[in-house]
TrEMBL record:
<dbReference type="InterPro" id="IPR007395">
    <property type="entry name" value="Zn_peptidase_2"/>
</dbReference>
<dbReference type="Pfam" id="PF04298">
    <property type="entry name" value="Zn_peptidase_2"/>
</dbReference>
<keyword id="KW-0472">Membrane</keyword>
<keyword id="KW-0812">Transmembrane</keyword>
<feature type="transmembrane region" description="Helical">
    <location>
        <begin position="194"/>
        <end position="217"/>
    </location>
</feature>
<feature type="transmembrane region" description="Helical">
    <location>
        <begin position="149"/>
        <end position="169"/>
    </location>
</feature>
<feature type="transmembrane region" description="Helical">
    <location>
        <begin position="6"/>
        <end position="27"/>
    </location>
</feature>
<protein>
    <recommendedName>
        <fullName>Zn-dependent protease</fullName>
    </recommendedName>
</protein>
<feature type="transmembrane region" description="Helical">
    <location>
        <begin position="121"/>
        <end position="143"/>
    </location>
</feature>
<keyword id="KW-1133">Transmembrane helix</keyword>
Length: 228
C-alpha cells in the first residue's frame, strides 16, 4: 500500500505539472489577444459589479501574475496588475470570474459560506497536520500522528468544497461576458478555455491532498498491520 500511495502521489504530481503548464500556455496565448471592444479587465469588473448593485465593491490592482482574487472581508475584487489594465481575452475572463465570487458573496451562495467556515480548520491542518504526522512517526506516538492526519483531512474537505465554488464562479463569468456583450461569439471559446484550465488546478490540488492522505494513512498502518 505504501508503494501504491507513493505511485499515486507521483502521478498526481505529474498531472499537476501538466495542468499548470496548460494553464500558463493558454493564459499566455490569450493574454496577447485583445477583445473586440478594447475594454480592460478593471473596466469589465466594474461594469459587472455595478450591474448587480455592487457599487460598494472596489476593483483594485495587486502586484504579481495570476494573483487575482476576491476579498470578502474588504469587499474588493483584486486583479493582478497585468489583468487590471489589459484588454486581453484572458484578462476579461479572469476579471469576470473574480466578480463571480463577489456576486456569490452578495447572494449568500451556500457553498461559499461553507468554504469560509472551513478555512480556519483547513489552514491549521495545512500547517500543522504534516508536522504532527512526521513527529508522531519519529517519536512512535501513533495518537499524535493520527491527530495530524485528521487535521490534514480538513484540507481535502476545504478543497472539495472549493470545486463547486470555483465552477459556479466560472459559469457566472461566462454568462456575464455573453449577456452583457463584452465578448463576441468567437471570443467566448478562448475565455472558456482559460477558465477551464484554471478550474483544473483546483481539481489537481484536491487530488494531491487525497494522495497525501492515502500515503500518511499507509505509513500509519491504517490499511492493515504493517510488516516489520
Amino acid at each position: 500500500m505504501d508503494t501504491l500511495a507513493f505511485l499515486l502521489m507521483g502521478l498526481v504530481f505529474v498531472a499537476s505539472l501538466i495542468i499548470q503548464g496548460g494553464l500558463q500556455a493558454t493564459f499566455a496565448r490569450y493574454s496577447r489577444v485583445a477583445n473586440s471592444r478594447g475594454l480592460t479587465g478593471a473596466q469589465v469588473a466594474r461594469a459587472i459589479l455595478d450591474a448587480h448593485g455592487l457599487s460598494h465593491v472596489r476593483v483594485e490592482p495587486v502586484p504579481g501574475a495570476l494573483t487575482d482574487h476576491y476579498d470578502p472581508q474588504a469587499k474588493a475584487v483584486r486583479l493582478s496588475e497585468p489583468n487590471y489594465a489589459s484588454p486581453s481575452l484572458a484578462a476579461l475572463a479572469v476579471a469576470a470570474h473574480e466578480v463571480g465570487h463577489a456576486v456569490q458573496d452578495a447572494q449568500g451562495y451556500a457553498w461559499l459560506r461553507v468554504r469560509a467556515s472551513l478555512w480556519p480548520a483547513a489552514s491549521l491542518g495545512s500547517n500543522l497536520g504534516p508536522i504532527l504526522v512526521l513527529a508522531g512517526l519519529f517519536l512512535g506516538a501513533l495518537g499524535l500522528a493520527k491527530l495530524g492526519l485528521y487535521l490534514y483531512l480538513a484540507v481535502a474537505l476545504f478543497q472539495l468544497i472549493t470545486l463547486p465554488v470555483e465552477f459556479d464562479a466560472s459559469k457566472r463569468a461566462l454568462e456575464f461576458l455573453r449577456r452583457m456583450g463584452f465578448l463576441g461569439r468567437e471570443e467566448m471559446g478562448p475565455a472558456r478555455r482559460v477558465l477551464t484550465w484554471a478550474a483544473l488546478t483546483y481539481v489537481a490540488a484536491l487530488a494531491s491532498s487525497l494522495a497525501t492522505i492515502l500515503y500518511y494513512a499507509s505509513l500509519l498502518g491504517l490499511f492493515g498491520r504493517r510488516e516489520e
